[in-house]
Structures are given as C-alpha cells and as structure tokens.
Amino acid sequence: MTISVLDRTEAASLGQLHDEAERVDEELLPCRVKNPELWFAESPADVEFAKALCQECPVRSLCLDGALERREPWGVWGGQLFLQGAVIPRKRPRGRPRKNETAA
Ligand code: SF4
C-alpha cells in the first residue's frame, strides 16, 4: 500500500469530513444552514437545488471523495446524486414511465 492510497482512504473518512467542516464557518456549509431534507428529497427539483447549493461548499471535494469511498446508498453528497453507491445524473420522478418513451 502506498502513501497516496493511505492519504486517500483517510481523506475519505466521514470523521475527516466532519473535522474539516468544523474548521470552516458553519454559514458556508449549505447543508447545515438550509433544510437538510433537500439533500435527501424525493422531488427531482429539490435534488437539483441541493446539488447546486453544494457547488459553493468549501468542503465539496472532500465530501464527494468520502461519499464515493463509502458508496453512499442515497442522497446528495459533494454536489452529486448517489443511488446505491453510485453517482447518477438525475433523479427520476416517481411513477411509471410514459408509454411513448422508447426503450434503448
Ligand atoms: S458538499 Fe457535502 S458538506 Fe457541502 S453542502 Fe454538499 S453535502 Fe453538505
């Protein structure tokens, strides 16, 4: 194992994210000052809003690295939407697909 692997693993820990977040003004962390439910919202519009809010977050890259490492099961982390441990481009609205949607 190399030092860089160790560094990445350490950087990805949730504890390190919390430590880093403690060093910055809480007002700069969108998920601490806005409604935290936005980051786990059902509505695709709310999810996109949370992703946009993350873009200005000072710990965004650390947050994203950690979420990737932990394979977060769901929610917005580091400006990306996770589902079952993977980043997905957008949340699909609930319900059945339209009849006129063509299969790929
Ligand atoms: S990047 Fe992470 S810590 Fe920052 S607002 Fe988004 S979810 Fe919260």
From TrEMBL:
<dbReference type="GO" id="GO:0005737">
    <property type="term" value="C:cytoplasm"/>
</dbReference>
<dbReference type="Pfam" id="PF02467">
    <property type="entry name" value="Whib"/>
</dbReference>
<feature type="binding site">
    <location>
        <position position="54"/>
    </location>
    <ligand>
        <name>[4Fe-4S] cluster</name>
    </ligand>
</feature>
<keyword id="KW-0411">Iron-sulfur</keyword>
<dbReference type="GO" id="GO:0046872">
    <property type="term" value="F:metal ion binding"/>
</dbReference>
<dbReference type="GO" id="GO:0045892">
    <property type="term" value="P:negative regulation of DNA-templated transcription"/>
</dbReference>
<comment type="similarity">
    <text>Belongs to the WhiB family.</text>
</comment>
<protein>
    <recommendedName>
        <fullName>Transcriptional regulator WhiB</fullName>
    </recommendedName>
</protein>
<keyword id="KW-0804">Transcription</keyword>
<dbReference type="GO" id="GO:0047134">
    <property type="term" value="F:protein-disulfide reductase [NAD(P)H] activity"/>
</dbReference>
<comment type="function">
    <text>Acts as a transcriptional regulator. Probably redox-responsive. The apo- but not holo-form probably binds DNA.</text>
</comment>
<keyword id="KW-0408">Iron</keyword>
<keyword id="KW-1015">Disulfide bond</keyword>
<feature type="binding site">
    <location>
        <position position="57"/>
    </location>
    <ligand>
        <name>[4Fe-4S] cluster</name>
    </ligand>
</feature>
<dbReference type="GO" id="GO:0051539">
    <property type="term" value="F:4 iron, 4 sulfur cluster binding"/>
</dbReference>
<keyword id="KW-0963">Cytoplasm</keyword>
<dbReference type="InterPro" id="IPR003482">
    <property type="entry name" value="Whib"/>
</dbReference>
<keyword id="KW-0479">Metal-binding</keyword>
<keyword id="KW-0004">4Fe-4S</keyword>
<keyword id="KW-0238">DNA-binding</keyword>
<dbReference type="GO" id="GO:0003677">
    <property type="term" value="F:DNA binding"/>
</dbReference>
<feature type="binding site">
    <location>
        <position position="63"/>
    </location>
    <ligand>
        <name>[4Fe-4S] cluster</name>
    </ligand>
</feature>
<keyword id="KW-0805">Transcription regulation</keyword>
<dbReference type="InterPro" id="IPR034768">
    <property type="entry name" value="4FE4S_WBL"/>
</dbReference>
<dbReference type="InterPro" id="IPR017956">
    <property type="entry name" value="AT_hook_DNA-bd_motif"/>
</dbReference>
<dbReference type="GO" id="GO:0035731">
    <property type="term" value="F:dinitrosyl-iron complex binding"/>
</dbReference>
<dbReference type="Pfam" id="PF02178">
    <property type="entry name" value="AT_hook"/>
</dbReference>
<feature type="binding site">
    <location>
        <position position="31"/>
    </location>
    <ligand>
        <name>[4Fe-4S] cluster</name>
    </ligand>
</feature>
<dbReference type="GO" id="GO:0045454">
    <property type="term" value="P:cell redox homeostasis"/>
</dbReference>
